[in-house]
Write a structure and sequence with these properties.
Blueprint: E1 4-6, E2 9-11, E3 18-24, H1 39-51, E4 57-61, H2 74-90, E5 96-101, H3 104-112, E6 117-120, H4 129-135, E7 139-143, H5 158-166, E8 174-177, H6 189-197, E9 210-211, H7 217-223, H8 231-243, E10 248-251, H9 254-266, E11 273-274, E12 280-281, H10 288-298, E13 311-316, H11 320-333, E14 336-339, E15 346-351, H12 353-362, H13 368-380
Helix pairs in contact: 1-2, 2-3, 3-4, 6-7, 8-9, 11-12, 12-13
Length: 382
């Protein structure tokens, strides 16, 4: 996992999770507390409600990305950029300032006049965007989107999100964003849930990950909460996202989100990192699909994915004959059956997904109960 330097702010596994607060200079934005058109008032909000509360990055939006609203042109966004630049002049606190846009012309003008990084909500649908960011040596968040400047984030299936993030490549300072939220009519809450469930897979790109899950519908729906009452579910998901590998959390609730992110960071799995002549890093891989993403990154054969993680199942209620049969078959398949005391009906079956899949085919004389147990395991290992 590479570290991205965003105007001196280090983003990656070796650094704390970074908090991205939000300022909108667009009257269309649905979150009114973050919307300003007076630069001095906006600057006061940035200083007191974002930076003082723990924001490392301030993301400035020039227009609402609401799919129900008309998309502004690059010229329209450039007109609003003057207000955003005036905010920067009035801010006294220290933070990295990000411009949210889909147009390379706007990104270029913002970077020329004081912004530090870009949040591209259309994921390089403008093919000139990566060139501009590279010329300014600027970090850029790339949100998974179709190749269409009018449809930010409008992707449903998780595997299609991967294809979208790869479109038009990456810069050395890219940060990937899988695009949570209702960006299209076809995108369901279940799509977001699956994306969140598979969040570790996005580490396979080797670039830091940004997530924007603040009070999102797929979280509110779990607890049956309104937007106003959804902070607790957002904070729970924030800790989980950081534990699963997210590096930047974009939020309107800066102080609380910072604390939740730090908890996730404190208790996440510690990976070995030895950047010597031969560097060593333990990858955060828990499923074959996650392993496959890393194998793709280094150009290796995906067939190794099912041999890359170990699964452990507890079986209770084994007969003596089933236990003897399973122990012999496990050895042949490359798995292990660890049993308890003589007479115990329980055991632990340990093996890679590939070994457990082989096991179902090498058990010679299983009872119907054991056959059902093996079928259950093979349905879940991948």
């Amino acid at each position: 996992m590479r570290t991205v330097d965003a105007a001196g702010l280090k983003i990656g596994d070796d650094h704390p999770p970074r908090i991205m607060g939000v300022l909108n200079v667009s009257k269309e934005s649905p979150y009114k507390p973050s919307v300003f058109n007076d630069p001095s008032e906006a600057a006061e909000y940035v200083d007191s409600e974002l930076i003082d509360e723990g924001a490392d990055i301030v993301d400035v939006g020039l227009e609402s990305a609401n799919k129900r609203l008309d998309v502004l042109s690059a010229e329209d966004e450039l007109e609003r950029l003057d207000t955003a630049l005036s905010v920067l002049d009035h801010v006294s606190g220290d933070a990295v300032f990000s411009i949210e846009t889909r147009y390379h012309e706007v990104a270029e003008a913002a970077l020329e006049q004081g912004f530090d990084m870009v949040n591209d909500i259309c994921g390089f649908a403008d093919p000139e965007m990566p060139r501009v960011c590279e010329e300014f040596d600027a970090a850029v968040a790339k949100m998974a989107s179709p190749p269409d400047l009018t449809c930010p984030g409008a992707i449903e299936e998780v595997d299609d999100i991967y294809d979208a993030l790869e479109r038009n490549g990456f810069t050395d300072k890219t940060i990937v964003d899988p695009a949570f939220g209702g960006w299209s009519e076809a995108k369901t809450l279940e799509h977001d849930r699956e994306t969140f469930d598979r969040l570790r897979e996005f580490r396979g790109y080797g670039y830091p990950i940004l997530v924007s899950i603040n009070r999102k519908n797929f979280l509110r729906d779990v607890a049956g909460r309104s937007t106003e009452d959804a902070l607790p579910v957002s904070l729970a998901a924030t800790s989980m996202a950081v534990e699963r590998g997210a590096h930047i959390i974009r939020t309107h609730d800066v102080r609380e989100t910072r604390d939740a992110a730090l908890i996730g960071h404190e208790f996440k799995r510690r990976r070995v990192r030895e950047p010597g002549d031969v560097s060593v890093e333990e990858l955060d891989v828990t499923t074959p699909r996650e392993a496959a993403r890393h194998l793709d990154r280094i150009g290796a054969n995906r067939d190794f994915a099912t041999e890359s993680v170990t699964r452990v199942f507890e079986l209770e209620g084994l007969s003596a004959d089933d236990r003897e049969e399973l122990a012999a078959a496990a050895a042949d398949a490359g798995a292990v059956l660890a049993g308890g005391d003589t007479g115990s009906t329980g055991a632990l079956l340990i093996g890679t997904p590939a070994a457990l899949d082989r096991l179902e085919h090498v058990v010679a004389d299983a009872s119907p109960a054991l056959e059902a147990a093996l079928e259950t395991m093979t349905q879940t290992v991948n």
